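Hi F.,

I've been meaning to write this up properly since the lab meeting, where we talked about keeping a consistent format for the predictions we share between groups. The idea is simple: the sequence comes first, exactly as it goes in, then the structure tokens exactly as they come out, then a line or two of notes. No screenshots and no reformatting. I'm using this chain as the first example so we have something concrete to point to.
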Amino acid sequence: MDGLPVGTDSIIAARVLRIGELDGAPEYAFGQIVAILPAPDGGFYACDGNDVSIRRYDSAGVFVRQVGRRGAGPGEFGNCADIALGRDASLAVNDPSNGRVVFFTPTGEPDRTVTSRVAPGLGGGDGVFTIDTAGRMWTRGWLGGRGESEAALPTHYVIMDASGKRVDSLRVPAAGEGPGRGFMLCTNDGCYDAQPPDSLHAVATTGHLATAGPMAYRVAVRAPDGTVREIVREARPVGYVSAEHAQWEAWRAYMTKQDPKYPPIAIPGIKPLLRGLRFDDAGRLWVKVHVTAEDRPIPPRKPGDLRPMLTWRERNTYDLFDVATGGYIGRVAFPYATEFMASRGNRVWLREEGESGEQLIGVHELRPAAR
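Output, unedited:
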């Protein structure tokens, strides 16, 4: 954690690299960036959901190769959103549509396929698929039989060995009843929940499991030996600006019109404290928090598009904690119209937006803010 000790307080993300082209070589054109995975050499993999492709780039952002392709045969996958690195720097693609995990060598050649029968799980949190330092695969999912509904079953992190054999599972907090039916809006800086998930959770490559409820700044971190550390921070909830609240209510009315039998409940007056959890490789816990929204210059809808506007947007903002001690490191707010996708050390990869609305990848360095 060089340069970011406990007590840093204010952190900035300084861009060091940006790639992507609106009109250019296809390997630099992105339709829908759904996952980014940093590699040990400073390069990274990018998964494009539009053509279901994985592309390898070096540390300077230069395209190296494509890895695998869409399909169900050897070296193919149905989706590439969940990707992870194996202990030998191999690339693993979680492919639930084909009931397996597909592995590729560090040079991009098909390696092996492991059968996996874990149905993807519900709930809020990052890290749906992770490979820990012992080589075990963690998949967030549910354990049930034929004919059972996922919504009625508890969610687990199912742990499999390198062969795909289930060796353990950890149950995450039940979703509960919740405040009622809500909805989600996805924008150029991520997705917003009108009603938050009842539980947030994430798993680290070290085997730590973090769980929290969105309404209280209290995160339980379970270590591999079963001990639990609580991270608690004083915080006040953020209220909606009146114009922001009106836009959310306009969306609620629109959603009600689309499905009158199941109308979403009214938008509350204040926001939850927490939006999400994630770990990184540097022993840090990232806690995504709600902040005051800004009224942004969002282009108007095209004629005939009756959907409401959402011009009030939050900058994606995280508090960082040292997992070993629970100490608070600091807060970082990423630029508007960007979404945090991955990190390695003090480098972060953001999905960004160009002047014409095209998707780009920005690589940033975390640094203490000048005082």
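Notes:
The chain has one domain: 9-368.
The chain has one helix and 31 strands.

If this format works for you, I'll send the rest the same way.

G.
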